[in-house]
Structure formats: structure tokens, C-alpha cells
Write a structure and sequence with these properties.
alpha/beta, 6-stranded mixed beta sheet, 5-stranded mixed beta sheet, 10 helices, 11 strands
């Protein structure tokens, strides 16, 4: 009788362990495919195309772009090792699943890649880069570009030439950069270099932005002092990518599924801390005349229209450490048109609830099975 009881107990324990393994595999691997397979590339609306920009033959295929922000890879100072392991696994699985399912042409990460880039030593920064390249590796035909965030090198008042150059060299990310793909121009700018105080970082940034604007005007045929050496041969309104949002008073105007909690939406933004200054925002709009602006920094989603029908999209944090329902952005671009869609990642509380209810169900299942009259009858009969 004792042996039969032990056999029944072992059988249900093995079944319970196999069920737990299945739940673990689902929550840590399969669920990313279940959620992200529901996300698809947006469709271009021909009615929104700019009629003043005709398409060329080599531009008939749209550029597929993935935008994400605020990964905040943890360092050695803040956070627990298990929290670090968990968050990095979640971001790794989401990103690699998106690479498999969505297969973008280009990925842009909009700052705050590292959580402790400002404080870490040179050796730790090298390890940061290695972890980043491992977590966010892309297929051969996909290109990845980043912009700097305040956690990568500090706010404007603490950035040194060393911290700035370390990030530029390590991440191959100059303060201003133009990426042109099939007639689409993406302008990447270091937000902390837009203080307008003539510092070692700001003055070269202003010059570079003005040069890009000049080349765009020349490509459009309205610029002065244009030469054949202009680096832009094909004009289209650029897409501005940066870490800070453009100037806004708060997140109160935002109305997205991943928006800030109500208690945070009414908090006023400080210029140059939570958003660009009003002056810098107006200058970027005047100089570059973008058709779209994509940024991060606030950790919460937002969408609003600026002047001249310029859409600004603030992408929420890619890390579950900062957001219960993280998301990323997909965009399809032609020189005269674009379309966007938001992809929501697995909700962390949902994953936790799956674990809790599954474990409770398995425990109750084992208890009920062991207490069933049929099992007791068979045991007595064999005895």
C-alpha cells in the first residue's frame, strides 16, 4: 500500500513539474510570438501622399523601420542581479522575436540605451557595449542606429568631452547624423546638444544641423550657394529622431494605451529636462521642416500634431522596469508618404497572473487527484 501511494504521488508530482515547465516555456518564450504576431506593418494611404514629390523607380519599395526607446540596460550600481537578468531577457526575447516576425530594414533606438552610462568606468562601458550588441543583434540585411540619451552621457550640464566622445566612438553615434534610404532622410540629433549656449557640444551640433538643412534646400532647388558637391541629391521632408520630446507643458494632452498614469500626466515638464526648450523646438521646426518627429525619454506614449501638420510620436520605454505595458513603433516610409503602427509587448502583470493562476491550478489538481475516492479504492483493493 505504501509503494502504491508513493507511485501515485510521484506520478502526479512528475505531471505537475512537466506542467510547470510548459508554463515556463510559454511565459518566457512562446508568449512573445503569440503577442507580436498580432502586430503588422501599417498600410500607406495614397490620399496622404505629397503630390509635390514624385517617386523615382528605385523608390517604389517602402522602407520598413522599427523605433524603440529607453532600454536602460542596468549597470553595477542600481538594481538587483535577478531584476537585471529578467529585464534583459524580456527585451532580448521581444527584440529577437520582432526581428523574426517583422524583419525591419532599419532599427532606430532613441536614447537611454544604458542606465548608468554617465557613471560607469571605461571597462564597464565596454561591457555595456558588448551586452547591447548581444541583446540587440540584427540580421545581416537590417541596420541599427542609435541616438544618445541623458542616461548614456548625462544631462547637458555634466557632459564632458570624454563622456561625449566615449559614446560616439563606442556606439558609432555622432551628435548629428543623416541616414538616407531610398529617398527618405532620417536626421538623428543628440538632444543634450540643443541648449544653444555655444558649448563644445552645442556649437558643432548647430553647424551640422544647418548644413543638413542647407543640403535639403539645395536638393529641393530653393537653396542659395548650392554646389554640385551637395550630399543630398533627392529631396523629401526629413524624419527627425531624438531622445527628448519637443517642447510641451506636460503629458496631459496625451491619449494612448501606453500613456502616462493620470497622476503623472498633470505634472509640468521642465524645459531641457523632460523636453526640449521651446526655443530649440521652434528652431528645429523652422530649420529642418520635418514631416515626422519620433522621440522617447518620458517612458510613456504620446502622439500630437505640431504646426504645419507635423506629427510627433513619443515612444514609451522598451523595458518592463519602466513600463507595465511597453511598446515599440513600426513605420513604413516613402519619400512622399508614411504610415505608423504601434506594437504592444506582453503585459508584465498578465505574465505574472498566468504564473500565479497556473501554479494554483496545478497544486489544486494534484491535491484533488490524490484525494479522489477511485484512487483510494484501487489502493485498498491492491492491498
Amino acid at each position: 500500500m505504501v509503494n502504491i501511494k508513493r507511485f501515485s504521488f510521484k506520478k502526479y508530482v512528475v505531471a505537475a513539474l512537466l506542467a510547470l515547465l510548459g508554463i515556463f516555456i510559454f511565459c518566457e518564450y512562446v508568449i512573445y510570438y503569440v503577442v507580436l504576431i498580432q502586430c503588422d506593418w501599417p498600410s500607406l494611404d495614397p490620399k496622404k501622399a505629397d503630390p509635390t514629390i514624385p517617386l523615382l523607380k528605385n523608390e517604389e519599395r517602402p522602407v520598413k523601420v522599427m523605433f524603440l526607446a529607453d532600454t536602460h540596460l542596468m549597470g553595477s550600481r542600481n538594481g538587483h542581479w535577478f531584476d537585471k537578468l529578467k529585464r534583459e531577457w524580456q527585451m532580448y526575447r521581444t527584440f529577437q522575436t520582432a526581428m523574426t516576425l517583422q524583419r525591419p530594414d532599419v532599427v532606430f533606438i532613441l536614447g537611454d540605451i544604458f542606465d548608468e552610462g554617465l557613471w560607469c568606468s571605461s571597462s564597464e562601458f565596454e561591457r555595456y557595449i558588448q551586452r547591447f550588441e548581444s541583446l540587440f543583434s540584427v540580421p545581416k540585411n537590417t541596420h541599427l542606429y542609435v541616438v544618445a540619451g541623458n542616461h548614456d552621457m548625462g544631462f547637458h550640464y555634466v557632459i564632458t568631452p570624454y563622456l561625449n566622445q566615449r559614446f560616439i566612438n563606442g556606439m558609432k553615434a555622432p551628435s548629428v547624423r543623416r541616414i538616407s534610404i531610398r529617398g527618405n532622410h532620417f536626421v538623428l540629433i543628440n538632444s543634450m546638444a540643443l541648449e544653444g549656449d555655444g558649448c563644445f557640444l552645442c556649437r558643432p551640433t548647430e553647424v551640422a544641423v544647418n548644413n543638413i538643412a542647407k543640403h535639403l534646400k539645395c536638393a529641393k532647388g530653393v537653396g542659395n550657394d548650392c554646389s554640385k558637391s551637395s550630399t543630398i541629391k533627392r529631396y523629401s521632408r526629413p524624419i527627425l529622431l531624438q531622445h527628448y520630446p519637443m517642447y510641451r507643458e506636460s503629458d496631459e494632452i496625451c491619449n494612448e494605451l501606453d500613456q502616462a498614469p493620470e497622476e503623472l500626466k498633470e505634472i509640468k515638464f521642465r524645459e531641457r529636462w523632460e523636453c526640449l526648450s521651446k526655443e530649440a523646438s521652434e528652431q528645429l521646426l523652422d530649420i529642418l521642416k520635418p514631416r515626422l518627429i519620433v522621440d522617447g525619454h518620458t517612458h510613456h506614449g504620446c502622439r500630437r500634431i505640431l504646426r504645419d501638420d507635423v506629427l510627433e510620436v513619443t515612444v514609451s520605454s522598451f523595458s518592463w522596469r519602466n513600463k507595465n505595458n511597453p511598446s515599440f513603433l513600426l513605420g513604413v516610409f516613402m519619400p512622399n508618404n508614411y504610415a505608423l503602427s504601434k506594437c504592444y509587448m506582453p503585459v508584465e502583470t498578465t505574465v505574472i497572473n498566468i504564473y500565479i493562476f497556473s501554479i494554483i491550478f496545478i497544486i489544486l489538481f494534484v491535491i484533488v487527484k490524490l484525494r479522489q475516492p477511485s484512487n483510494r479504492y484501487n489502493i485498498l483493493k491492491l492491498h
